[in-house]
Amino acid sequence: EGYQIKVIEECEAVYSGIPIPADTEIPLHRQWNIVAYLPTFELDAGAPDYYVLSSILDNLQIAKDALGRFMAPSEEFSNMPPWRETQGYQVKVEQAGVLVYPAEGEEVASIQPSHSSQTHLEITPTGQNMSVLINGILCKNVSGGDNISAFSTMGRLVGSGVVDDQGRCGLAVWGDDLSTKEVDGMLPMEEFTLRLVNSGNDIELDLTSIVVKSGSGLVYEKDGLSVLEIAFETHTPDKYFLSEAYPNPFNAVVQLNFGLPEAANVMINVFDLQGRLVDVISDVEYKAGLHSISWNAVNVVSGSYLIRMESGNFKTSQLVTLLK
Questions:
Q1: What is the third-level CATH fold of 241-322?
Q2: What does the DSSP assignment read for 258-281?
Q3: Where along the chain do its domains lie?
Q4: What average pLDDT does the segment 157-164 reach?
């Protein structure tokens, strides 16, 4: 079993008794469980292997730690550092099952989130949260290391996460601490908003649009998972551009963001390395501004492909790699 403990200040807990073997079977019931981490060594929790929970991967929906960092295998995402002793973790499974931690791996030190999951905004965990995964960010200047923060309608900071090198961001939005009299987090069904701050802390942009892929969107739901695509306020670009595709390499779907200084027809095609046309992503007219489009390569074989964008006299191309 794992437990949540609230303390007034930092302290050390000492436990006595016979250690539980690392490979002991841990029964899991359907939906949420709090599990103890039994090994005395660290195990990798990163995508795409989620090694620490490999024994239940087919049954796993989401897992998260005390700081709200989480893994969501169905979304091919994790911002969790390696699991370590003394910690407990929340694990949600589709059906009852048994968790057995695997043997010590050799790759822990080399597989880490591309940017630190610690943010520069200090947020005190309240004991309950929801997970928000931003899979697509439409903003010309967004880059790895930028910060996306969540705010309540009263302006209270309730969550913060860091954009990774694939243009994705996972963050915990913290609910109200029921052990305090004051409201210090989100209430059930309360709305929140998102704000982008670049890594230099000199540009701050407000959310302008959102596409909810799954979950409750920007509405707080304890232990929920919202998957979003979002856009932040920015000016019409002064020139044509095609941002770096993300994620890259990718498994099935790759996201493309592009900007137009004026309304124009946009043709985006995919070619193999022999120059043969593989797919047509776009051949329509767009208004001036920022736009987002995706390429679903589920029926395409693994390999490297050239994505080429043409609009008026503007032409550009980039290489993407499909891994299955």
A1: Immunoglobulin-like (2.60.40)
A2: EEESS-EEEEEEEEETTS-EEEEE
A3: 26-109, 129-232, 241-322
A4: 93
